[in-house]
Amino acid sequence: KHLTLNFVLALIIQLGFPGLCILILKNYFQRPRPYQTIEFSTRSDNCLVPFIQAFMKNQSKNPCNKRFVSCPSGHTSATFSIFLACIVLLSQNQNFIQN
Hints:
This protein has about 100 residues and is mainly alpha-helical.
């Protein structure tokens, strides 16, 4: 029971905090996904907006009030968080086994 609680708490910290940070950054930058841009869309639509480089704040108008949440990547941050946690756990287990 104690191990399960620690695991759940670690998972919340490991994925929850970075996830919250990513949501805040996505709302700040409001970068459109490529299919929502004039340059990369395969359809003609009045809702398309100009392409914006990564980590540049979107200053253009949003004609159709769509959500622009392309950058930073939530999947990448979650993968990095899990990878980092695995590295930490492996290094702790290696020290435990050697002692």
